[in-house]
Design a protein that fits this description.
single chain, alpha/beta, 434 Repressor (Amino-terminal Domain), Rossmann fold, 3 domains, about 15% strand, LacI/GalR-like_sensor
């Protein structure tokens, strides 16, 4: 007579008896305890179907890993604090996916601190670090939290990403802004443009400064005189692109092409030109930077430089986790080469 299978414990019976254990999860998912452990701590080493069964069993049983015990053994938290000035930035979500996947693969979780560009908020989130609720810090802000010296003599292991950190004392992972901007400018030059405006000069954003430098290097190499270049300030918003465009028309000396520091600025320029009755790219060409999702929905679709956002997130988290278990090292900078994405917003200048 065949043996009857061992019945799975129900969630109610587990709650009625004791806290669910990893053995309960293994029985319910019909896998070994070692497989459950791998699915939790190194999910990339477990087949997708198996990982889904384990996750379902964890949800049903209510099992939670003993993070506190793990933290005590390691002498630190297993959470990483991420400080971001604007979680609505279209670049943020894709980078977050990359860094969160990398963190989870090594048994870490992520805390998101939305500073909203408010120094006080950044300082408040440092309390997680001082109370050992977070082991390391990832900065999207481009600067260390204001006032952190009042709360700690030294920041914990920290990595900047997306926006280079100004003081240079923090490791950084991001796109190669200079090389990407040079690619964009060279694309406009190869299309025949010689009068090009750059929109997005900034005194406070190092990434914007690097993109301006890439623009200048490309035009220097093409021997474009200073009289045929225009550089206007911009904070990277749609409105800043529109305002810069109005300044250019007030001067009465419009270029044939616009190179924008990011896609949001480029969308502002495209909208402004369309409102004035210009047909793009027949009358003027526009190129952006970042390749945010909205870049494909403007008319015409925006030619731009694509940031490898998920790869930036993964590498930034990997670099931070390495630093948790290593002696202090000099800051490093890891730059990932971007791709030029050619769509419909750039063509040769009209000969009038």
């Amino acid at each position: 007579m065949p043996s009857r299978p061992t019945p799975f414990p129900s969630a109610a019976s587990l709650q009625a008896t004791s806290t669910a254990t990893i053995e309960d999860v293994a029985r319910m998912a019909d896998v070994s305890i070692a497989t459950v452990s791998r699915a939790i701590h190194t999910p990339e080493k477990v087949a997708t179907s198996t990982r889904q069964r384990v996750n379902q069993a964890i949800a049903i049983t209510g099992y939670t890993t003993n993070a506190m015990a793990r933290s005590l053994r390691m002498g630190r938290s297993n959470m990483i604090l991420v400080l971001a000035p604007d979680i609505g930035d279209p670049n943020f979500s894709s980078i977050l996916v990359g860094l969160e996947n990398e963190a989870r693969a090594h048994g870490y979780g992520v805390l998101i601190g939305h500073t909203q560009n408010d120094p006080e908020r950044g300082l408040d989130y440092l309390k997680f670090l001082n109370s050992n609720q977070a082991a390391g810090l990832l900065l999207f802000t481009g600067h260390a939290p204001f006032g952190h010296q009042m709360m700690t003599e030294r920041l914990p292991p920290t990595v900047g990403l997306f926006e280079p950190v100004f003081n240079g004392r923090v490791s950084y992972v991001g796109v190669d802004d200079l090389a990407g901007a040079r690619k964009a400018a060279e694309h406009l030059l190869s299309a025949g443009h010689r009068r090009i405006a750059f929109i997005g000069e900034s005194r406070t954003k190092l990434g914007h400064q690097r993109r301006l430098k890439g623009f200048e290097l490309a035009l220097d190499a093409a021997r474009i005189p200073a009289s045929d270049r225009m550089v206007l300030e911009g904070d990277g918003t749609i409105e800043s692109g529109r305002l810069a465009l109005e300044q250019i028309f007030m001067r009465g000396d419009a270029p044939t092409a616009f190179m924008c520091v990011n896609d949001a600025t480029a969308i502002g320029v495209v909208n402004g030109l369309s409102a004035r009755g210009y047909e793009l790219p027949r009358d003027m060409s526009v190129i952006g930077f970042d390749d945010i999702p909205q870049a494909t929905y403007v008319h015409p679709p925006l030619t731009t430089v694509r940031q490898p956002r998920s790869a930036i997130g993964r590498q930034a988290m990997a670099l931070l986790l390495q630093s948790l278990d290593a002696p202090p090292e000099p800051p490093r900078e890891i730059l990932i080469m971007p791709d030029l994405i050619v769509r419909g917003s750039v063509t040769g200048p009209q000969r009038r």
